[in-house]
Protein: Glutamine amidotransferase type-2 domain-containing protein
Organism: Arabis alpina
Amino acid sequence: MCGIAVIVSGVRIELSTLQSLSEPPFEQLQFTMEDVKSVLGQRGPDSVGEKKILLRPTSAQESVTLSVFEDGEGDCELGDTSSSCGELHFIGSTLQLRGTSSIVQPLVDSSGNILAYNGEVFGGIEINSYDNDTEVLLKSLENEKSLVPDVLSMIKGPWSVIFWQESSRTLWFGKDAFGRRSLLVHWPTVEEPRFILSSVSPASSIAHGSGLDAENGNSIHRFWEELPCGVYSISFGVSESGLCVLGEVTKHEWTITMWKELIEWERIDVLPRPEDLSNSSLGRIQEEKDNALSTSSVFAQTVLVVLKESVRRRTSLHIIFQGEKEVVPVAVLFSGGLDSMILAALLDQCLDPKYEVDLLNVSFDGPNAPDRISAKAGIKELKMIAPLRRWKLVEIDAELSKLTCETKRVMSLINPADTYMDLNIGTALWLAARGDGWIHEESENQTVEEDKQRVKYKSHARVLLVGAGADEQCAGYGRHRTKYRNGSWVALDQEMKLDMQRIWKRNLGRDDRCIADNGKEARFPFLDEDVIKTLLDIPLWEIADLEQPSGKGDKKVLRQVAKLLGLHEVAKMPKRAIQFGSRIARESNRKNFGSNRAANQASAGSVRFQSP
């Protein structure tokens, strides 16, 4: 995981090619360049670097052109859009997970191109096992015959990018089609005319108040926004007067059909015929009777194959920088539920048995939280199917009342999200990624779990597997069942489509920022491009059967995958969100609303919190 940012000063940015932005009032925020470097350094603890370039109109033969200078060359007055000189200040931090030699971002090539990259290349661009993907990407981008949108469209894997193309005087930026890596944007305003991109908001830029203009009762336009998925550019030039540097923003189309299809998320088989439901039901009965392979099992087998390949791509040690030196190179965000159990079982199949695996479990109710109970049951089932693996259940215990400083930090990390639900989820993820908890130490004479000594332990795994995307694609949320009841298959399909098309805004940016703040990288196997396409090609009634009760029909195809892996107990478990399974929602409700009942009456999850 890396942190990237660029601050553009002294340039008049033209936004006419984008959708109209909200009108004032705006948040009034202040932060320094050191604030930006500090928060990015948390994401990339291996190195932090910066690079400045200056843009200045120069006269030549009765025409005015735009010249680029290194920082320190020429005299420029910076500070507002009326200035005759612009500045681009690039910042990059690195959590190095690939390559055999260390790098410092932003990278600069011999042509003057500048790249700050936060992501992984799992396919699309050819990379040697021991190459660093940021260096390879820069070489692909510096090829003058390559168009930037073409190169970025080729990448399979999560990414966000900031790229200065020297030859065209153009700043390129964007993130992958599902927004699996965070990139925030501040569009210029009268109050703050700079254009700013950053992986995360500096701690000092949390707005005071609830996002409302108390005097007029109007909603305040947030300083930061999640940059919508896609590829953008700012082309720089000179005004007609020759006095100002101008920048025009353009959004570009994906140049590969696959991305357009995945973004549209159109399933062909939505409405089942009576015989489809009959065959599916008979197949389920036959499976339960004698474990025969039904049509549903064939679909599950297909999903299992692509999921395993997805996990393999994300955990191959030859692409984890110095991974062989780590006792525990990969960890799993672990509730003991269906998604995390599948990921743990597949990780065992992809990782050399000599490596331990940390299973990170958060509880705000000690041993009594549902997720802690299911995690302990889950590790027993994992040991049955993978007895050679040393599994470490890392019990991360927390008390909300003692997390005052941590809560303020998470408020900054989830920004621009600002609801109690976001805060609860973000806090649980941040604590899990920190990996600071307890394990039960084994010895030859201790066979009963309760008799084992509980000792402090901190996970140092830099790669964290997370189950994001499973519920959205496989009808795992309660609202999916409600939509099905009220509108049948078409309504269910539309709700799932909506979930996938907004997952970048509602979930992934927030999750990325909270996990990465600990110098860890979240990887989402369920959001692999091939997994998404495979699930989309399966008939909806084989993905879920919401006529069946919770714990059976929801995420039907994943429950069958679990059975194929030998995880028969977890295949029966109902869905439980992290904020409820860890009990942080209950503690938050009591703290902020007085009781669960009062919180429910106030629809606490969607209520905006008051920033400190």
